[in-house]
Specification:
254 residues; mainly alpha; three-stranded antiparallel sheet; 9 helices; 3 strands
Length: 254
């Protein structure tokens, strides 16, 4: 919003509902749209502003389509398109705008409607959720392996036997060395819930699986072995955000 207060080149930006705007829809915010790199690459290639308006509106509407078997098709009447386009956009102008070649949508023109079929590779929601599932599976196997090693080591400790070198090496590679308990010094397995693993899978998509796994040993040493961890997803998210901020600050001043 521009405000003429006597100063030159000064803009006042008002963030409406700024305390809740970034929250998910379930938390009372505006919610999120999920776009991938393919979509953004194709979006910036568009030359016609009205084509951009229509394609972006259609992409937002299709964002909630999570069914991988369902085709990404939307039909809109010209009257609907004209409701959010400039007044000069008559049907022939809309047709001309949407006739420009693009890898985002295939466009079919009817007498009263326009059908838009989205390229599945550009559908960020499906791509994101597919990545989430793959990342969750990778992280689940990693955590389950660590839990299995810790339980095997604890069984040896309970029998007053030495922990095998293989078990110690596997835990050491993950950055895990501390144990809990004053007498037996047992390891504390993660025993994560499905929701915990989904949170970590989502973080793997936002950052990278490698970044998430690198945090596991640190989190164990600082929190899990001391019984101080309530939400591993929230904790690792905080660590990764802080690491990202420090990296960005380093590059900004280097």
């Amino acid at each position: 919003m521009y405000c003429n207060d006597g100063s030159k080149n000064r803009f006042h930006v008002i963030l409406s509902e700024y305390t809740t705007y970034a929250l998910s829809a379930k938390e009372g915010g505006r919610g999120y749209a999920t776009f991938n790199r393919c979509f953004l690459d194709e979006l910036v290639k568009l030359q016609d502003l009205n084509q951009l308006r229509v394609f972006l509106r259609a992409a937002l509407d299709m964002d909630t389509n999570r069914n991988p078997e369902r085709e990404l098709i939307q039909e809109n009447q010209y009257s609907f398109l004209r409701s959010f386009l400039p007044r000069y956009c008559k049907p022939n102008i809309i047709k001309k705008a949407l006739s420009a070649a693009s890898n985002l949508f295939q466009v079919a023109f009817g007498e009263d409607v326009i059908a838009l079929k989205m390229n599945p590779e550009c559908h960020g929601r499906r791509d994101f959720e597919k990545n989430n599932k793959e990342n969750t599976d990778i992280i689940k196997k990693y955590i389950e392996k660590l839990d299995s090693v810790m339980k095997h080591a604890n069984a040896a400790i309970m029998k007053k036997q030495p922990v095998t070198e293989d078990d110690l090496d596997a835990l050491k590679q993950a950055g895990i060395q501390s144990r809990a308990g004053s007498l037996r010094k047992l390891y504390v397995p993660f025993n994560l819930t499905d929701d915990d693993l989904k949170d970590l899978g989502c973080l793997g998509s936002t950052y990278s699986v490698e970044s998430v796994l690198e945090c596991v040993g640190y989190v164990y040493e600082q929190y899990q072995s001391k019984f101080k961890m309530s939400s591993i997803g929230a904790l690792i998210r905080t660590i990764l955000k802080e690491n990202n901020s420090q990296t960005e600050l380093f590059y900004a001043f280097s």
